[in-house]
Amino acid sequence: QVQLAESGGGLVQAGGSLRLSCAASGRIFWNYEMGWYRQAPGKEREFVAAIRWSSGSMWYADSVKGRFTISKDNAKNTIYLQMNSLKPEDTAIYYCSCAGSWGQGTQVTVSS
Question: In the sheet that 18-26 helps form, which strands lie side by side, from edge to edge?
Fold first, then answer.
């Protein structure tokens, strides 16, 4: 089983930036994907971005393409989500996920 711990959320003004981190521990296989999801109040959880450990291939939701960048540090078993040009609609709890496991989430609030 994989354990995940997110960090880096906070309050930022529209147009600002934040970087989220997700540290993974436990049984992590090379072909795993790790991803970021978010859930805004009153809405369903939605996919944001994902990256594959082995190849570094990345996927993004259309709503964040060009603004968010997912990356990984294999040595630290950590993925990151660099979020630029943040909008109020990016406000949500952001969760890290891998192999069916979820982190506790980190709050991102973007003020207008």
Answer: 2-7, 18-26, 78-83, 68-73
